Amino acid sequence: MQLIVLGLNHKTAPVEIREKFNFSRSRIKHILRLFRESDDFSETVLVSTCNRTELYLVAQEPEDGMASLQIAVKRIAGKTFKSEYFYTLTGVHCVRHLLLVASSLDSLIVGEGQILSQVKDAYHLARTAGTTSTLFNTIFNQAITTGKRIRTRTQIAYRSVSVSSAAVDLAMKVVGDLSKADILVIGAGKMSELTARHLLDKGAPSIFVTNRSYDHAQELAAKFNGSVIRFDDFIDHAVNADIVITSTGAPHYIIQRDRLALALEERQKANPLVLIDIAVPRDIDPEVTGLKNVVLYNIDDLQNVVDTNKELRNQDAEAAKTLIEEDILALKERLRYLSLRPVMVRLHDKFDFLRERIVAKTLKKMPELTEEQQHKIEVMSERLMYKFLRDPMININKAAGTEEEEHVKKDISRFFMLNDKDEDEPDDEKNYNYWN
Predict the structure, then answer these.
(1) Is there a contact between 294 and 273 (Cβ–Cβ < 8 Å)?
(2) Within a 10 A sphere around the Cβ of 261, how many other Cβ atoms?
(3) Residue 50 is a catalytic residue
(4) Which of 5, 206, 281, 391 has CB atoms 3.0–4.6 Å from 94's, for a disulfide?
(5) Which positions ≥6 away from 24 have C-beta within 8 Å?
(6) Where do the DSSP E strands lie in 156-272?
(7) Phi, psi of 5, rounded to the nearest 5 degrees
């Protein structure tokens, strides 16, 4: 057996290709059914998001599995299939990739939280469809646990690495909770839209938008449950706002010191007015910092936050990779016994079969026994069997993953004649070569 992931993502394929592989839930179920009916694969999970589509598989025979996988993917992809869009990883590299994905270290935006939920949903869908078993149940649960652990053990999810997100974080440092904040966004371009999105993600219920083009302001406001302020009137609203974020293409200051000073005489709030200027050229006269109860951040302040956070996020990413390697080693330890599990199961089943047959014969010769007495004999026989098997099972398990594994499998199978019923050979190492 071999672990395989075949996928494409934002690094390998352009959006016009990725969108063709962004499968709906019903399509994912259909694909899972196709692989469930295949003799080449025993387990399947399909992760499909806007930035990646990845098919995780347990192949019964690595060479045959890869060949049939290519055929299956070409059939699903149709004319859009090109090998350069896809990557294939096997064994431990497949496991490491999954843990990196679940931890958002392979995301377009490192530290984003949505991918962990998407991996979890993909796994639950596959499990419900009956396409996971012991191996993927173990590996995907570990990936989910690793993703959670990295988010709690590092700050990777809380570092702003874009100007728009840094603007919101700086505003929150002064204002605190955004749920009751009065927020005015001046400008209706891409940066204003990104900032508005971050504001709502951090708890702002709505925003006010103003722009020289009233229609453009309406378009932006409509996307975020916002309201429109006419551009000529924005200073009157800004003076009683909590946060004002500016991002226009104006060649001059749209908020001058003297005009703001005059308007502030009508301010009814005691908290500071936070002005965040993310425009170049600047929208706000830097002299406003001399006004009482006004806090101003410009693009340089934001860029400093971004640069610092990028460095810290890189450090977090390295710490996260260390945690991932720890989890891979722990996972390998948990999975290593699986290569000997068929031998252990057969040994147990053979002893149990013999035990049941002997107990049945014995009880037939003792019809005078009560049900309680028969039950006691049954329990005693089970306990004896477990006592007899305990040390052999421990030693078999100890051999897993060592140089002795091959010999132990052959010896146990030969000593106890475990292959007398035409079973597959338990020492066929390639069937359980998960890690290579």
Answers:
(1) yes
(2) 15
(3) yes
(4) 5
(5) none
(6) 183-186, 208-210, 227-228, 243-246
(7) -125, 130
Of the candidates 50, 67, 354, 366, the residue annotated as catalytic is 50
Q: What pLDDT is stored for residue 427 in this prediction?
A: 40
- Strands (E) located in 278-320: 294-297
Q: What does 40-59 look like in DSSP terms, one character per residue?
A: SEEEEEEEE-SSEEEEEEEE
3-state DSSP call for residue 409?
helix
Task: Name the token pair of 237.
Answer: 């609203």
Cα pseudo-dihedral 21, 27, 31, 36, rounded to 10: 150
Question: What's the CA gap between 69 and 84, in Å, rounded?
Answer: 16
Tell me how far apart the alpha carbons of residues 131 and 137 are, in angstroms, rounded to a whole number. 10
Residue 244: strand, helix, or coil: strand
Query: The tokens of 362 are what?
Result: 């014995």
Strands (E), 10-138: 41-48, 52-59, 87-90
**pLDDT band at 161; cut points 50, 70, 90:** low
Task: Encode pLDDT of 315-343 as tens digits.
Answer: 888 999 999 999 999 988 777 766 677 78
pLDDT digits (tens, 9 = 90+) for 261-289: 999 999 999 999 999 998 888 999 999 99
Q: How many CB atoms are located within 10 Å of the residue 313 CB?
A: 22
Amino acid at 162: S
Q: Which among 85, 77, 80 has a CA at the least distance from the CA of 11?
A: 85
The C-alpha atoms of residue 373 and residue 391 are separated, in whole angstroms, by 29
- Please enumerate in sequence order all residues whose Cβ is within 8 A of that of 35, keeping only pairs 6 or more positions apart, or say none: 41, 44, 57, 72, 131
Integer Cα distance of 320 and 340 in angstroms: 32
CB 428 within 8 A of CB 405: no
Minimal CA–CA distance to 170: which of 145, 138, 195, 148? 195
**Least confident segment among 91-105, 165-179, 412-426:** 412-426
